[in-house]
Amino acid sequence: MADVIEIEATTPAESFLSWRGILAGAAAGSAFSLVLISLGLAGGLSLLSPWPGQSHTGLAASVAAAWSLIATIASFLIAGFVAARVRPRIADVPADEVEFRDGVQGFVAWAVCVLFAGLIAVGASGLALHATSAVAKFSDRTSSSPLAAIVSTLAAPPEGKPVTAAVPLFTADETRTIEGVFLKSVGSGGLAPKDKSFVANIVAARAGIPLSDAETRVDVAYADAVAALDKAKKATELSGLLTGIGLLIGLAAAWYGGVRGGKSRDENMPGRLRFGGW
């Protein structure tokens, strides 16, 4: 008697991710983020005043940071929620696994938003650099670093001498040369005597002051340049740290939004605004 072998027909496993849902969530989160950032910029401008003693720069910075965090959390929360809410329901999968997959759905939506924002930032930076280089071609005084304001003080006339239109200033080449000497000295640990003497001779000739006074100016300007570069470095590091923390908080928000969106989908919750149950 021949053995009968039963072959059980299986259906292909459902996709772990729904890219339609991910793209929908990323689009919704990005659009909502743009709206919140636009509102924040409009509101932040009202905190600045051109009148002395009426500006609130410290308050404006705090409000801007808080609003940026709120916009990040809200936009990624919506991105994760939408990405999981419109995802097809998963059958014959344990509840814990469904929740995990919904969280991953929100995580991938977060990643798409971050990558998209990064591409926009890179493109905007490229356009800004192109525009800057184009403007520089028509500029008589082009600075090679943010030290131009500090360098320009070196050419001020002696104390007590009136400032007139005939007061000589540094040429563009001289400005770039002094900035280059300062930047090189900062990288090498200090202003070498020969570099100090070189810059002081330029300053003495342009400002019409004795060489000893020019060397004093160079020392003061170099100290100011070091402080300015250190401040810019710390600001860049702080900005990067806050951006990273904000994105990590956004990741948690997107994951949570994905879990809540999956729960809303599986429990057939109506698609309306709800202020409770979160």
Structural overview:
This protein is mainly alpha-helical and 278 residues long. It is 69% helix and 0% strand. The chain has helices at residues 19-45, 57-85, 95-136, 148-152, 172-188, 193-207, 211-266. Helix 1 (19-45) crosses helix 3 (95-136) and helix 2 crosses helix 3.
- As residue ranges, the low-confidence spans are 4-12, 50-55, 127-144
Question: What proportion strand?
Answer: under 5%
Mean pLDDT: 75
**Sequence of secondary-structure elements:** HHHHHHH
Radius of gyration of CA atoms, rounded to a whole number: 30 Å
Number of helices: 7
Number of strands: 0
SS-derived structural category = mainly alpha
Terminal CA distance: 63 Å
Proportion in helices: 55-70%
Major sheet details: none
Overall shape: it is: rod-shaped
Summary of the model, kept short:
With 278 residues, this protein is mainly α. It is 69% helix and 0% strand.
Q: Mind sketching the topology for me?
A:
Blueprint: H1 19-45, H2 57-85, H3 95-136, H4 148-152, H5 172-188, H6 193-207, H7 211-266
Helix pairs in contact: 1-2, 1-3, 2-3, 2-7, 3-7, 6-7
Key words describing this protein structure:
mainly alpha; 0% strand; 278 residues; single chain
